[in-house]
Amino acid sequence: MVAKKTKSLPNIKVPKTEKVEAWGMSSFSMSPVFRPETEEEIKELFVWANQTGTKVALRGGGCSYGDASTNTDGIVLDLTRFNKVLDFNLKTGVMTVQSGARIKDLWETGIENGFWPPVVSGTMMPTLGGALSMNIHGKNNFKVGTIGEHIKEFTFLTAKGDILVCSPKKNADLFYSAISGFGMLGCFLTVQIKMKPIYSGKMKIDPVYVRNFDELFDYFEEHYKTADYLVGWIDAFASGKSLGRGQIHKATNLKEGEDPDFPGNCLLERQHLPSRLFYVIPKKWMWILMRPFSFNFGMRMINLAKCIASILVNNKAYYQGHAEYAFLLDYVPNWKFVYKPGAMIQYQVFIPKENAKQAFREIFTKCQERGIVNYLSVFKKHKPDPFLLTHAVDGFSMAMDFPVTKSNREKLWSLCHELDEIVLKHKGRFYFAKDSTLRKRVMESYFPKENLKKFYSLKKKYDPKGILQTDLYKRVFLTENE
Q: pLDDT at residue 6 above 70?
């Protein structure tokens, strides 16, 4: 990997190989990891990679469930130290940050000034560069779209070494392809994002129990116009007339003047997630307490208990802080350790609204028939977006967490391939940030041919030597992995 030094080569010292793990911990690569802190260091690494033929994977917070930021045959550029907040205009709400800044940095900088990120994921740990590469969505996708739709401008280092300023009007082709391009065209350097104003440190939450898929879809369709956020939890073990039962959380922002405790309740000390459950049990212990239930019968009982609890609190509104509502995955530290040693994958699919209910019925039924039921299902509503490799549809998504074990791994991948056919039949899509099992044939079946043609053309233009590659890219774009 290390070429002989010449006068034209930057003086790059390759660090020791280390384990680079997928967020779901079911896959990893052994790779040298560079952690640049300046724009100049990133540029030097790109020059070096082009001259030596070294393959480079860009990595932000490492929050992709699968192999989107691992690199078996090359190096990894971890950008989490390139993370400064450069400017925040309180009049316009536009924040300028380096691409390694996390969603956590955005909301902690903004909230005491009455601003919140327009789109957040279920964890606050992704970097903004990673979030743009995957064009993340939130529980408000149906209302405000993906994070890419709130970017005013960014500077971008292409793989061949050019730095370009991109916006919807300037270098627009690159703007709409780098966002959603899963890190295959270059590296985001600085990003301007428009934050949204808030007028309270809390939101009104309405918990609603639904008995099946019919009630779930009916509620979303009836209430999405009056909601700021909507998310549903589904009991994947339920069957028959109860197929699709679960709980919805509708969140509504308070309007200006409605909260007498504003802005006091926006202080960081009142927004950070509590470290203890019921003020007693340290949350860092909770995954250990959950571990004995990490098998099918145990999870069936937990899902049943959650359903009963949902009935008891049905339609009893309460108020909750923004971080507490948004970052469920951070609420219990290291909860994914429950799935060790094989850990887990997430299978997330996006189905047009006219086909979604039937598709999800078929998916849940197929999982039950195969005896591999997911332990956590999350349901959201979506709308289309203008980005090149978008996962979004005018419809709904279901994200499903499956444990991975030595005994079920082969069967689980086989099940996911069966589910792929259901998704394709119903004109659905997949999401690179969550994927671990997608095959090239399936990817080529759901993306429009003109989108793929344009992506390959841009890849050749901005990365002519093909230095940007990840295990995901090699699995889904370079090989037929049946």
A: no
**Threshold 0.90, pTM exceeds:** yes
**Residue whose C-alpha is closest to residue 245's, from 255, 235, 232, 230:** 235
Residue 474: which residues within 8 A CB-CB, separation 6 or more? 72, 73
Going by pLDDT thresholds of 50, 70 and 90, the confidence category of residue 215 is very high
- 427 Cβ contact partners less than 8 Å away, ≥ 6 residues apart: 351, 352, 355, 393, 446
Name the DSSP letter for residue 478.
Answer: I
Name the residue among 155, 230, 226 with its Cα closest to residue 189: 155
For residue 240, what is the DSSP state? Answer: G
CA distances from 481 to 337, 403, 429, 438 (A): 29, 22, 18, 9
Q: Identify the helix (H) or strand (E) that includes residue 451.
A: helix 449-462
The predicted pLDDT at position 278 comes to 62
Mean pLDDT taken over the chain? 95
Asked if residues 192 and 94 have their Cβ atoms less than 8 Å apart, the reply is yes
pLDDT digits (tens, 9 = 90+) for 458-472: 999 999 999 999 999
- Please check whether residue 430 is in contact with residue 391, taking contact to mean a CB–CB distance below 8 angstroms: yes
What are the E-state strand segments in 146-293? Answer: 151-158, 163-166, 186-194, 196-197, 202-210, 229-234, 246-253, 276-277, 281-282
Instruction: Say whether pLDDT at 277 is over 80.
Output: no
Q: Are 222 and 234 in contact (CB under 8 A)?
A: no
To the nearest 10°, report the CA torsion of 321, 324, 326, 330: 160
Cα–Cα nearest to 103, from 87, 127, 85? 127
Q: Say which amino acid occupies 455.
A: F
Read off the tokens for 31: 């790779």
CB neighbourhood size of 469 (10 A): 20
CA-nearest of 257, 258, 116, 121 to 198 is 116
235-250, pLDDT tens digit by residue?
A: 999 999 999 999 999 9
